[in-house]
Amino acid sequence: MATMLQCRIQATENMPSGIGTSYRSLADDVYKSTTIEENKFSVIETVKKAFSFAGPQTRRSDALILRAHDEPRVEVVPGMAIRDRKMPASASAEETALLGTMPSDCMDDIDLKNIQLQFPNTRTLSKDDSSIVEERVETGRGSVLVAVQGNRSKPAILTYHDLGLNYISNFQAFFNYIDMRALLDNFCVYHVTAPGQEEGSPTLPDDHVYPTMDELAEQINFVMSHFLLKSIIGFGVGAGGNVLARFALVHPEKVEALCLVNCVSTQAGWIEWGYQKLNARHLRTKGMTQAVLDYLMWHHFGRGTEERNHDLVQVYKAYFERHVNPTNLALFIDSYIRRTDLNIVRELEPSRRKNSHTLSMPVMNITGALSPHVDDTVTLNGRLDPTNSTWMKIQDCGMVLEEQPGKVSEAFRLFLQGQGYAVKLSRKRSTSTSAEVAPLTENKMAIFRQTSLDGLNLISKHQTRISSPPYWSTSAINITENPISEAVVC
Predict the structure, then answer these.
(1) Which region holds residue 462: left if phi is over 0, alpha if psi is between -120 and 50, else beta?
(2) Confidence tier at 447 by pLDDT (50, 70, 90)
(3) Terminal Cα distance for the chain, rounded
(4) 199 phi/psi in degrees, rounded to 5
(5) In this structure, are residues 189 and 141 in contact, taking their beta carbons and an 8 Å threshold?
(6) Taking burial as the number of CB atoms within 10 A of a residue's CB, which of 90, 106, 378, 383 is the most buried?
(7) What are the contacts of 323-328 at 24+ separation with CB within 8 A?
(8) How far is it, in rounded angstroms, from Cα 331 to Cα 142?
(9) Residues contacting 412, CB < 8 A, separation 6+
(10) pLDDT digit string (tens) for 218-250?
(11) Confidence of residue 365 (pLDDT cuts 50, 70, 90)
């Protein structure tokens, strides 16, 4: 024991001042002693070897850290044996066994030959759907452009746009939304554009008398006659909603339902009249000025638009500056501010509701929480029959079709479901169902056979309206949450 203590003290006194070389030698020997099988080394012999290999050194190496361009230097100190500092060239059996279990050993080399970058498409407000067919329809006050989208044998949805827009800039993105795409498989959409508001439209002459709002509404009657439409579902935004509401008041039998977005039912106030008169003068004399552009952006989006959706604002600003005919827009604005009141009244007494002057068809009244037309939609809702009208305000948006298309499409689908649309008939009829439809006439039986074979077809409420006794049992039709694809006949 004393001999062992004396060896430790002597090894401590002989500890060299330059520890860099000593530590590398120590690591080398320890590595060999732990990984390479040697001739029966014991623990005591390993410790002795670790403390006895260090020899005296005269001075400390100055270059402890070498730069990248320097070459390593080896200083030879008298009395110190030069050893090979390199790792063993050939791996031992133990190293080979350890390295053979690494995951990289079984990985194949991957040769990256080509990278194809995909960038999102730039949002534009131009016609890019080849399925839309445009037709000119002659009316009593000139011709209008109508774009037809979908199968013309399906039930009809007729749209009308707002100020400064047309069917492309107002409805294209909304009807191309994924949820609305499923709806287009079962409806045909007729997009009506006000005179002179389509892209590339020639400037109307100075002596041209633009149609009034009532005359614009009467043009829809010519459109329905041209396409042989018996009834429509109206979808209007802003000024277009006012046009459709006027048409529904005059021809209630031709409108099954109305979806109105930011619709105004009263005449123009003094502030609106003054602003719009100034805008119309600027459009005729100076074109699309910054004042007119700011008003149009406020009219469609409300305030704080750039904070919500900067990219969308830039797209519409560029559209108003480059693709809108200023003179034709001025004529449309003049017609809109000269509008008359719809004169619709809500009757509180049930006995007078049938004869009241209001919209008799179901109406869905939509607005955005940030839209400047919220109060106007509230006024319209107060003048509608509460039994067949719905008012909906969507949060965090002003232009609801662009900023919240998912919420609007869901509400519109449920609205159509409430009107009896989106009924899917199965291919096979049960015995009870065929017994129920036995008393039907030849024409109605043909309709039933056709819809049964089609698998998915839409039946309007006029087709299913049968005189008593009711041969269509209410328990035979089940409409689920997603009426487009799930409703079946048992």
Answers:
(1) alpha
(2) very low
(3) 99
(4) -70, 135
(5) no
(6) 383
(7) 323/125, 323/169, 323/199, 324/164, 324/288, 325/196, 325/197, 325/201, 325/203, 326/283, 326/284, 326/287, 326/288, 326/292, 327/203, 327/204, 327/283, 327/284, 328/195, 328/196, 328/197, 328/201, 328/203, 328/204
(8) 14
(9) 180, 183, 235, 259, 364
(10) 999 999 999 999 999 999 999 999 999 999 999
(11) very high
Name the one residue in this structure whose structure tokens are 């049992």: 473
Choose among 368, 376, 346: nearest CA to 263: 376
Give yes or no for residue 445 having a pLDDT over 50. no
pTM over 0.90: no
Q: Which residues contact 42 (CB under 8 A, 6 or more apart)?
A: none
Question: Which has the closest alpha carbon to 135: 126, 127, 144?
Answer: 144
Residue with tokens 């009467």: 218
Residue 43 phi, psi (nearest 5)? -65, -40
Asked if residue 2 has pLDDT above 90, the reply is no
For residue 133, report the phi and psi dihedrals to the nearest 5 degrees. -115, 125
Q: Which of 183, 173, 294, 309 is nearest to 237 (CA)?
A: 173
> What is the average pLDDT score of the chain?
73
Choose between 309 and 301: higher pLDDT: 301
127-153 per-position pLDDT tens digit: 556 678 999 999 988 899 999 998 999
Percent of the chain beyond pLDDT 70? Answer: 58
Confidence tier at 185 by pLDDT (50, 70, 90): confident
Greatest Cα pair distance in the chain: 125
